[in-house]
Amino acid sequence: MPATPPPLTPGQRAALAAALEARQREVRAELAAKLRNQDDPRLVGLRNRMEDTDDWAAADAMAAQDITLVARDLAELAKVEAALARVADGSYGECAECGDPIPYARLAAYPAAPRCVGCQDRAEARERMRR
Question: Which residue segment(s) compose the domain that 73 sits in?
Fold first, then answer.
């Protein structure tokens, strides 16, 4: 059984919280830009192509892709905001499943990680079995 990693230091916690806050701002800006698409030149081009070719299949595919991108960004924003809530309540850096400290290296790579590597592996295995 691997050794339990040390808890985050105050400096590590502050740096990771700053990274989460920066990512929150970035994702919010990306979402705002995607949702403010009335003036998007790609949509103007799509409208022109629709008028010229009546290619509704292409429009449907592009709309589905836009929806997928927005959904992905919303999911990421929810994960970042959940991590910021853990920072606020003092549980950030603790695995949501086993309670052990999440290694700093994992959080540095993915600051919104709610689980340690072992618990994340088990959660992904359960998800694969459900599919």
Answer: 10-94
